[in-house]
């Protein structure tokens, strides 16, 4: 029995053992490309430091507006401010002396962009819920934001993002169903969590960089 592989309009025929070896070589090559792409993401975005700092500050501002302002203003602050996270993160990265983002054509750039659009789309549901019951807006937003961090595990190659996703998502579910709290509570909690994880993620990325340098060194 033989196996046929069509790649880039070229036909390759493999005997069973040759097919297995070809698949293994291709898998190893793809894994190297993925690891390199993840390393680029960690380097450019400082392990998520800038993005989490900007997001954390935004959530704290929204919490302050909810505490001393009005629910409608707090909802508008988080939603409209969320649209500025990406440009503000790029600005912070540039002020830090590095590139503002991935270069054009980078294989991970499209995935990063697609993930970024999940939050504003999900926020529409949270806004509708917040209009009806303002105290549920921030917990719902926590679940949405937490869930959007799950693909970051692959994007950055950092499992710590799964912990961040779990903390925010589970915290939001608890506030939604089992621990009713004043409207600002979820926002204060999320802001603090994001700032803490900004530091933890940066430290984790630095450790992964050192490990990678050790592995690649002759």
Q: Nutshell version of this structure?
A:
It is built from ten helices and two strands; from the N terminus they run ββαααααααααα.
Helix-strand layout with pairing:
Elements: E1 3-7, E2 10-14, H1 16-44, H2 49-68, H3 71-82, H4 85-95, H5 109-116, H6 118-132, H7 137-148, H8 152-156, H9 160-177, H10 184-216
Antiparallel strand pairs: 1-2
Query: What is the count of β-strands?
Result: 2
The biggest beta sheet is recorded as: 2 strands, antiparallel
Broad structural category: mainly alpha
The succession of helices and strands, N to C, reads EEHHHHHHHHHH
Report low-confidence residues grouped into runs of 5 or more.
1-15, 19-32
Main attributes of the structure:
single chain; mainly alpha; two-stranded antiparallel sheet; 218 residues
Structure explained in plain terms:
The protein is mainly alpha-helical and about 220 residues long. The chain has one domain. Helix content is about 75%, strand content about 5%. A two-stranded antiparallel sheet has the order 1-2. Strand 1 (about 5) and strand 2 (about 10-15) form a beta hairpin. The chain starts with a strand and ends with a helix. About 30% of the residues are buried.
């Amino acid at each position: 029995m033989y196996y046929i592989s069509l790649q880039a309009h070229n036909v390759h025929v493999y005997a069973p053992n040759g097919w297995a070896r070809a698949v293994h070589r291709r898998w190893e090559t793809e894994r190297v490309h993925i690891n390199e792409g993840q390393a680029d993401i960690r380097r450019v975005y400082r392990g998520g430091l800038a993005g989490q700092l900007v997001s954390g500050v935004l959530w704290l501002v929204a919490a302050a507006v909810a505490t001393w302002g009005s629910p409608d203003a707090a909802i508008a602050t988080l939603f409209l401010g969320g649209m500025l996270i990406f440009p503000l993160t790029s600005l912070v990265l540039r002020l830090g002396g590095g590139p503002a983002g991935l270069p054009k054509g980078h294989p991970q750039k499209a995935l990063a962009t697609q993930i970024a659009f999940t939050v504003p789309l999900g926020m529409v549901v949270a806004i509708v819920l917040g209009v009806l019951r303002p105290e549920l807006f921030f917990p719902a937003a926590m679940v949405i934001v937490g869930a959007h961090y799950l693909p970051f595990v692959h994007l950055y190659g950092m499992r710590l993002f799964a912990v961040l996703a779990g903390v925010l998502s589970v915290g939001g579910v608890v506030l939604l169903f089992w621990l009713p709290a004043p409207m600002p509570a979820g926002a204060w909690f999320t802001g603090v969590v994001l700032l803490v994880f900004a530091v933890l993620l940066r430290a984790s990325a630095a450790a992964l960089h050192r490990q990678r340098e050790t592995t690649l060194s002759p």
